[in-house]
TrEMBL record:
The keyword Nucleotide-binding applies. One of its GO terms (biological process) is spliceosome conformational change to release U4 (or U4atac) and U1 (or U11). It is a multi-pass membrane protein. It is found in: Membrane. This is Uncharacterized protein. Its main location: membrane. The keyword Nucleotide-binding applies. It comes from Pelagomonas calceolata. Residues 226-289 form the SEC63 domain.
């Protein structure tokens, strides 16, 4: 579409989005994922030049949007998660980043304010999160299989004991005794931590062996990388994805079957499906050559 130009407020700015010229005339602009790169750059330039008095931006831009204001309003603290098919709360770090945009640097504002609008039952939790320091916990155990596989391929880990020693150098190990309930430990003593690490290493090694990524020696302690493990480490794939591809390679000989296997890759589970994406996905499905 031909760009729409704006006179007066905003100078002679050109926009691809037909709604932006009307809102910019009123001193208001917005950002969203479907906005063209040129429109976003123009909006950011106008806001930085004080041509706008209000900027509406989605939560997804909180880390890459270089903008501050005397008053920041966070309109809601949850978003729809397509993978879980429900609304989930924003990460506390995201909310903190949004609130940090209140106050223009360089002495422009003597004071600033941020208003967080949320569901009433969440007010107490958000107050603690915003005003009190929260402990940082490790999530290493969520992806430990892939870390161990990569270290086995690199020969940093050659036995289960090496794996336990490797874990003792991590932040995960430091937090086990500090917050045992968070990590499902039965106690905080050295014995409890040692037993937990041993059980964790045994489980991870067993899963990697079942996936064909790692071979456990006859002595039940040594670890060696197999071809699938090397492939996963080289291409930075999750061990579950490599296991799936290897198990399905012989049966998936046609394009529809290959696409189905590819769609079940573990890496794709983290890609969210937004409610507004449904019409575009339905249109794409109608024109797809291979139907599920």
């Amino acid at each position: 579409r031909r760009p729409t130009r704006v006179g007066r407020r905003g100078g002679d700015a050109a926009f691809d989005d037909p709604a932006l010229p009307r809102t910019v005339e009123a001193g208001v602009a917005f950002l969203h994922a479907g906005l063209s790169a040129r429109d976003r750059a123009t909006v950011e330039r106008l806001y930085a030049a004080d041509e706008l008095w209000m900027l509406v931006a989605p939560a997804s831009t909180c880390w890459d949007l270089d903008a501050t204001a005397k008053l920041v309003c966070v309109l809601g603290t949850e978003a729809y998660d397509g993978a879980r098919h429900r609304y989930v709360d924003y990460d506390v770090t995201d909310v903190l980043e949004m609130t940090s945009t209140a106050g223009r640097p360089g002495g422009v504002d003597d004071d600033a304010a941020c208003a967080v609008f949320c569901h009433a039952p969440k007010q107490a939790y958000l107050k603690r999160a915003l005003y009190e320091p929260l402990p940082v916990e490790s999530r290493l155990d969520d992806d430990l299989h892939d870390h161990v596989n990569a270290e086995v391929v690199a020969r940093t880990i050659e036995s289960k004991q090496d794996c336990v020693d490797y874990l003792t150098w991590t932040f995960y190990y430091r937090r086990l005794a500090k917050n045992p309930n968070y990590y499902d430990l039965r106690g905080a003593s050295h014995r409890h931590v040692s037993d937990h690490l041993s059980e964790l290493v045994e489980r991870v090694a067993g899963d990697l062996e079942d996936a064909g990524c790692v071979r456990v020696g006859d002595d039940e302690t040594s670890l060696a990388a197999l071809n699938l493990g090397m492939i996963a480490a080289y291409y930075r794939l999750r061990y579950a994805t490599v296991e799936l591809f290897a198990a399905s390679a012989a049966e998936a000989s046609r394009v529809p079957q290959l696409l189905e296997v590819l769609a079940h890759a573990a890496e794709l589970r983290d890609l969210p499906q937004r409610p507004q994406d449904a019409p575009a996905l339905e249109a794409l499905a109608r024109h797809a050559r291979h139907k599920p």
